[in-house]
Design brief:
By secondary structure, the protein is α+β, with helices and mostly antiparallel strands. The protein is built from eight helices and eleven strands.
Length: 247
Amino acid sequence: MIEKTINFSRRIFVEKTATAVAGLSIAPGVFLNQVAQAKPADQAVTSDVRWGMLIDTNKCATGCTACVSACNEENGIQSHNRPATDQVWIRKVKLRDKQTGHVTSLPMMCQHCEHPPCVDVCPTGASMKREDGIVLVDKHICIGCRYCMMACPYKARSFAHETVTDPKEYAPRGKGTVEACTLCVHRVDEGGTPACVEACNAAEHGAMIFGDLKDPNSEISKELEKHGGKQIRADLNLNTGVRYQGI
């Protein structure tokens, strides 16, 4: 009975708010399936793989924003000189040890949780998790309610307040929708790595490793086995796909 009540209430909510979708400004000719599609046509997304990232904060240089700049350029994210409302898919944060005063700098993005709270609270199904662990937002059915933003303990999602101009074909974006790191899914689906990881390596920091967490022979799995890695807010039992060393 409880389950039926929840589902019915969710349907009513969607029906009442569906008209809001018409006001969203996804650029003409850009469709979400260009981002959320499976791997190339002959390869389906499978749970045999779980994509993840390992970040070594000891190698992450304070003041370096190469990963942020690369993300913005790759996904067509532009600043409107209003920090409070600008879209942010990845940001640098500082952790300060209250006892020692030691400051740790690290990049923060969507943690691509196995049990993502953003998906749980989404009334339309716009927030979704692929079989390979990548969490995405379907901009065409996102109604901008921002429940997912409130549910995310990492403040990893942002709202598009401004009209989006010159969007990338592979990264559809639109005013009135919520967005977050996609792990550069368009690259991953073609066998590549996220732009942030590529930029970090180009800057010769090597602080970010991307790979398959289920493959014991992958670089990320070997590094985790050898040196370990921590989740941020592990107490929430979300089993994040992004892990950190040095915190």
